[in-house]
Amino acid sequence: MATSRRRVTAPDLVRMKLRGERIAMLTSYDFTMARLLDRAGVDVLLVGDSLGMVVLGYDNTLAVTLDAVVHHTAAVSRGASRALVVADMPFLSCHTGVPDAVRAAGRLVREGGAQAVKVEGGHPVLEVVQRLVEAGIPVMGHLGLTPQSVHQLGGFRKQVRTRRDAEKLLESARALEAAGACAIVLEMIPHSVAAEATTALQIPTIGIGAGPHCDGQVLVTYDALGLYDEFVPSFVKRYADLGSEITAAAEEYAKEVREGSFPAIRKSALSGARRD
Predict the structure, then answer these.
(1) From the centroid of its chain, how far is CA 78?
(2) Distance CA 182, CA 119 (A)
(3) Which end of the chain is more exposed for a tag (fewer CB within 10 A), N or C?
(4) Whole-angstrom distance, CA of residue 102 vs CA of residue 104
(5) How far apart (Å, rounded) are the C-alpha atoms in residues 180 and 186?
(6) pLDDT for residue 46 is more than 50
(7) Are 11 and 47 a contacting pair, CB within 8 Å?
(8) How many CB atoms lie within 10 A of CB 26?
(9) How far are the Cα atoms of 57, 222, 268 from residue 231, in angstroms, in the given order?
């Protein structure tokens, strides 16, 4: 199906849910990848704080700074002409007071060119979500496994293990919707709970390790394309193995340089040389 080249907006996500259209979302961290994914018709590009792990080499997302997210968001924004660009609010940017959160989100929009921001958590960030929306900044929520709480959660593991856990997640999802969120990412929760949240909400749910019943799906692009092999979640589908292809290409390049076969001297270049 052909994809419209009109810029996707935050309100479009709600309209897509109402029309029954699934939302395709991937992470992006640089201009070139953003341009390729945008050309492919991906609806939303998330400048995720996952860049801390797959780009910067940290063990988790906690070391990612606001400056880093602004920097990468600006690159992605320059490469995307259709996709909605969403920037992650990094660790602690939403928990030192509403004014700090508004300033941080403002930088992501003004300096980074983001069209929306993503905020992890439920009730503790509701006031932040509401104030950002009032300031004209669309907000995407994030519930379930929230990577910025990795130490509190005891690692990157599946969440919502009891019915009470499910009820708390649903309460948080409804509260985020009421605060003005335009969509909610649901990460690593049972499929049945994700389906329940998707039915209960007027705004779309975007699943990652949350089953097929969400209104859309998101993956870390480096996982989906086989570029990152340090840790690959079990729910990830690899659509390519570009890591191996890049390594093989670089090995071939190095081999040709060392043996002197690259760069080759072309006959046309010799025939065009001036003779005295």
Answers:
(1) 16
(2) 11
(3) C
(4) 5
(5) 17
(6) yes
(7) no
(8) 24
(9) 12, 11, 49
Chain centroid offset of residue 48 CA: 4
Longest CA span, the chain: 90
Q: Which residue has the tokens 């003004």?
A: 110
Per-residue model confidence (pLDDT) at position 255: 97
Tokens 């009109």 sit at which residue? Answer: 6
Q: Which amino acid is at 246?
A: I
CA dist., res. 192 & res. 253, Å (int): 49
256: number of Cβ within 10 Å: 13
Distance in angstroms (rounded) separating the CA atoms of residues 203 and 251: 48
**Structure token pair of residue 216:** 């859309």
Write the DSSP symbol of residue 146.
-
Per the structure block, which two tokens stand in for 50? Answer: 């996952």
Confirm if 117 and 147 have CB atoms less than 8 A apart: no
Q: Are the beta carbons of 126 and 179 closer than 8 angstroms? A: yes
Distance (Å, whole) CA 84 – CA 8: 5
pTM higher than 0.85 for the full model?
yes
CA 200 – CA 207 distance, rounded (Å): 15
Q: Which helix (H) or strand (E) holds 70?
A: helix 66-79
Number of other residues whose CB lies within 10 A of the CB of residue 135: 13
Please spell the DSSP secondary structure of 4-22, one letter per residue. --SPP-HHHHHHHHHHTPP
Catalytic residues: 187
**Residues 60-93, buried b or exposed e (16+ Cβ, 10 A)?**
bbbebebebbbebbbbbbebbebbbbbbbbbbeb
What would the two tokens of residue 44 be?
A: 């939303």
Helix axes 163-179, 191-200, angle to 10 degrees: 30
Task: Give me the mean pLDDT over the 20-30 stretch.
Answer: 98
